[in-house]
Amino acid sequence: MLAAALGLQPVFAQPGSKPGPMQSGTHTQPAATAPASSAATPAQGGKMDVSALFATSCGWCHSAGGREAGKGPKLMGTTLTDAELASRIRNGRVGQMPAFSGAFSDDQIHDIVAYIRALKPQK
Fold first, then answer.
1. Are 69 and 79 in contact (CB under 8 A)?
2. Could you tell me if 18 and 2 are in contact, meaning their C-beta atoms sit under 8 angstroms apart?
3. For residue 97, what are the β-bridge partners?
4. What is the largest CA-CA distance in the chain?
5. How many other β-carbons are positioned within 10 Å of the β-carbon of residue 32?
6. pTM of the model
């Protein structure tokens, strides 16, 4: 429901229509009435809670907001460059991470990369 409020599309495909959640490939197509890019982002002057976006889309695999490994690796302190992180988010990794290019706008991907860079241990 939070994803709908932010104007996001579901990240998992309907059976038989797109790759599964652990395969690369586009998992959604923005709807004509509510494209993923319609959600306000800080870059557009709007307010978007990136931590909520991360939690509802990425937190299924990257535990504690990316601070701990889960099904996916720990993201806090990653050695990947910003460009590598953005590419991984867009294109996924076959058998390991789904592609989110159809779910997130470029601004949202930029905001998620900034969120990952800002991760600090929880107190």
1. no
2. no
3. 93
4. 43
5. 6
6. 0.63
- Residue 93, SS3? strand
**pLDDT digits (tens), the chain, 123 positions:** 444 444 555 444 444 444 444 444 444 444 333 344 444 444 444 556 899 999 999 999 999 999 999 999 999 999 999 999 999 999 999 999 999 999 999 999 999 999 999 999 987
Domain residue spans of the chain: 50-123
Question: Would you say 30 and 36 are in contact if contact means Cβ atoms under 8 Å apart?
Answer: yes
> Is 97 strand, coil or helix?
strand
**CATH class for the region spanning 50-123:** mainly alpha
Pairwise CA distance, residues 30 & 70, whole Å:
28
Can you give the length of the chain in residues? 123
Q: What is the sign of the dihedral through the CA atoms of 101, 103, 106 and 110?
A: negative
